[in-house]
Amino acid sequence: MKLLFTACCLTMLVFGNTANAQSVEQKLTGMGLTLTAPTKSAGNYVKVVRTGNLLFLAGHISTRADGSTITGKLGKDLTIEQGYEAAKAATVSVLSTLKAELGELGRIRRIVKVTGFVSSMPDFTDQPKVVNGCSDLLVALLGDKGKHARSAVGMVALPLNAAVEIEMVVEVE
């Protein structure tokens, strides 16, 4: 009996307690977020390129679940909080592409790098606070696997007047 108990404890330590584990998709749903069908490329490029166990994802703009674009400039049309939500929306778009590529988001080993582009006025300097919408969501969904290197930069304009664009490098199993 003691041997069986020890084997069960070791199994849980090695593999985790999967009975109570939520998938990334379930966590998203619990947050009221919905993955959508990935959008088509707007030009002569692809949304994701795989080399080895790394996925390089093209920039994904801030879109709502209904497909409409979250538009405007930070420091003029949008508050930091609205920009934060736009960054989350762009991240959901990236995750939708990842889901289509991988079949399940549980295959993500690590978010390696995030680049956040923020449409902003010349005197707006809180781009990192906006891109935190992406970073906070990734850590909430993936824990330590969601922690990443990051750049958050201001742009004079983004495609379709989008408020935020997010691109990523992701390590997968």
From TrEMBL:
Keyword match Transmembrane helix: no
InterPro entries the UniProt entry points to: Endoribo_LPSP/chorism_mut-like, RutC-like_sf
UniProt entry keywords in alphabetical sequence: Signal
Domain Endoribonuclease L-PSP/chorismate mutase-like: 26-168
Endpoints of the signal sequence: 1-21
Listed SUPFAM superfamilies: YjgF-like (SSF55298)
CDD domains the record matches: YjgF_YER057c_UK114_like_1
UniProt cross-references to Gene3D superfamilies, sorted A to Z: RutC-like
UniProt-listed PANTHER family: ENDORIBONUCLEASE L-PSP_CHORISMATE MUTASE-LIKE DOMAIN-CONTAINING PROTEIN, ENDORIBONUCLEASE-RELATED
Record protein name field: Enamine deaminase RidA (YjgF/YER057c/UK114 family)
Source organism (scientific name): Spirosoma utsteinense
